[in-house]
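Re: the multi-chain job from yesterday

Posting the exact lines I submitted so nobody has to dig through the queue logs.
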Amino acid sequence: MKIQDLCSLVGGTVVCGESRLDDNVEYAFASDLMSDVLTVKIQNFILITGLANIQSIRTAEMSDVPFMLLCRNKEVTQEMINIAKENHMLLVRSPYSMFRCSGILYSAGLKPVY
Amino acid sequence: MHLEYNVEGGDFTRAGYASSQIKKTLKQLNVDATVIKRVVVALYEAEVNIVAHAYRGVIYADINGAGIQLRLADEGPGIADVDMAMKRGFSTASREVREMGFGAGMGLPNISENADNFSIDTIVGKGTTLNIEIKF
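And the result, structure tokens for all chains:
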């Protein structure tokens, strides 16, 4: 799925990483538990989370996650954006809940990691 | 190559900084991406543990052609029951730590799964030292 299409499906606003909108993603993992994210072995997936803080961005960095979808329009601090930019990550905010985002994207063909 | 980083207990804004720096170094050394991920997942969990549970600590990393040796030595409460701490789902983390997305009792098992060699030395009331080895 093209990231651009993914953004449209969830009514998303790009916070940073616009240059990756043409990239494709095949898998998604939704969690607010960062230790669980760290157990995912594949690398090219989108992290769907309601946890918007430094540690969720750091977890994405450590997991080589290039795309992150923050649900319920959670606030993103400048420090979070700086780390995301440093790691060439795309951050998208959606007004929808994690359940709704996951449901829409699963129905549209995004695959679960497990 | 020898690297050292100080880690402050309770400072969640900085948690992950040392892991990030070591990740950059390993990338520059052209270490295999799968190995880097194992290193940084183990290291990051261990770094977060210092921030979450200890007063302060130091991360020592020694890198050579064969692999990386990590030693994370903290001053803190120590671990009363290491076997219990290694059990998936067991945690003594505070609410603040859980709000950061950790504290679900997965940290030490995650470290163990990613390490080739892993040991814990701990003294209650003094602190804990983790030794993590990952081969390239």
